[in-house]
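Researcher: Please translate sequence to structure tokens.
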Amino acid sequence: MNTYNPINALVLFFIIAGIIFVLFRPTKGWFWIIKNNFKGNEKVITEDILKQLYHFEDSGNKVNTKTLLQVLKFSNHQIIEVIKNMTINNLIYFESDVLKLTDAGRDYALRIVRIHRLWERYLADKTGFSKEEWHDRAEMMEHKLSHDETNTLAARLGNPKFDPHGDPIPTKTGKIAPVNGVELPLLPVNSLGRITHIEDEPEIIYKQILAENIHIGSLIKVVENNATRIVFQSEGEEFRLAPIVAANLTVAPIEKEVVMEDNIARLSSLKENESAKIIGMSRESRGESRRRLLDLGFVKGANIKIDLMNPLGEPHAYLIKGTSIALRKDQAAKILIKKD
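Model: Translation complete:
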């Protein structure tokens, strides 16, 4: 026969009370941690949805819930719940099965895009992070910077109009500068143009462009254009791209009167026993690395030649202003020369 034991009851009471305290302790209880974590995730998911819708609408494409479930890296349940809340909060609306931004949603999306592109500009100009890292690092910061912090960052950078890929940076009032040019495959043979934008998505195509060492701001001449490849000359080199890759390059056509001089090239193409004069530096050379090269004497008008060839490939040592300086190939590719 069971008998009531006050000691056991007291122990059980304290165990239950302890569990409740661990679960519901103010701010630090598991319940609040999980709830706040969901709220944090909800903000990130909301902003990612807004940014995706902005990019789809800006490129003239339509998007539905199924598409968002495929492109966003969250659970389907979380995304659907956030979409419901976004419609309630008048950030998005449905037109048939197509998701669209409201005016308020578009304004919010532009703020996120502004932070992302400003942060990429910051990474390019003020740090030594490689291009491959810019996008992911900017994606983290776009959810963290406040409105005031974003404006401070913009002012520190000189309120730039474009990010390092050539994408326009929205102003604090949401205005966007136009991107001049057309997709490279639309240019006929013998056309001249200047690369004004390099699309960094999808990542697999962007990596191919990076591997080719194609630079924004470069002057190009199309020498072949067909269904299988686009071939163009730029800075003393020839580039061959599949049309799907070339479509990620925006090129502003230039009048025929502009002449591409045959002996203008990249320093990386200089051969042993050749000499040249520096005529400038590519826009790809930015921030501290650019200032360092200028401090070392790689300035317009300076005479240069190879001082020592590395038998293993790179770096090579270049003789400039009486000093031998070693540069990797990717560094030398950002310095423009005119061969003697």
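Researcher: Any highlights?
Model: Residues 30-58 form the longest helix (29 residues).
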